[in-house]
Amino acid sequence: MAIAQTTLTTTEWTVIGAGVTSITFQVVSSNPVYIGIGTTAGSISSTTPGLIYKQFEGELKKNPADLTFGSPGISTYVLARAVTSTGTINYETA
Fold first, then answer.
1. Residue 73 scores a pLDDT above 90
2. What's the first-to-final CA gap in the chain, in angstroms?
3. Around Cβ 34, how many Cβ atoms within 10 Å?
4. Number of neighbours of residue 48 by Cβ within 10 angstroms
5. Number of H helices, E strands in the chain
6. Which band of pLDDT confidence, cut at 50, 70 and 90, is reported for residue 71?
7. How many angstroms separate the CA atoms of 22 and 11, rounded?
8. How far apart are CA 84 and CA 4, in angstroms?
9. Is 69 helix (H, G, I), strand (E, B) or coil?
10. Strand, helix or coil at 82?
11. Domain range 4-93, CATH architecture
12. Which residues, 6 or more positions from 8, have their beta carbon under 8 angstroms from its beta carbon?
């Protein structure tokens, strides 16, 4: 798969992986980004907390279930949103 890049806002979650078994991502903006997982694209709200990644932080070939501090269930959607202002993330899924 090819590497993609997207700009994120603070008001809504953006799907960066839909129905995936692994994901690689890195935050490239100076603003931090939340990463969350869900069972569908709309399964988490705009106020749902997520794991925070700062500039140049990310994960390599990570299982979506490993990206939560709660019980993941059957979560195969990876979503991202900016913590402040806007954020930018590079990602690749499998």
1. no
2. 7
3. 20
4. 13
5. 0, 8
6. low
7. 25
8. 21
9. coil
10. strand
11. Sandwich (2.60)
12. 14, 33, 80, 81, 82, 86, 87, 88, 89
In one-letter notation, the amino acid at residue 71 is S
Rounded Cα distance, 7 and 75, in Å: 23
What SS3 state is found at 3? coil
Domain boundaries of the chain, sorted by first residue:
4-93
Q: Which amino acid is at 37?
A: I
How confident is the model over 83-93, as pLDDT tens digits?
Answer: 999 999 999 99
> What is the longest distance spanned by two Cα atoms in the chain?
32
pLDDT of residue 55: 97
Q: What is the DSSP string of 46-63?
A: TT---EEE-TT-EEEEE-
Which pair of tokens denotes residue 3?
Answer: 């590497």
- Interval 7-49: pLDDT, tens: 999 988 999 999 999 999 999 999 999 999 988 888 887 777 7
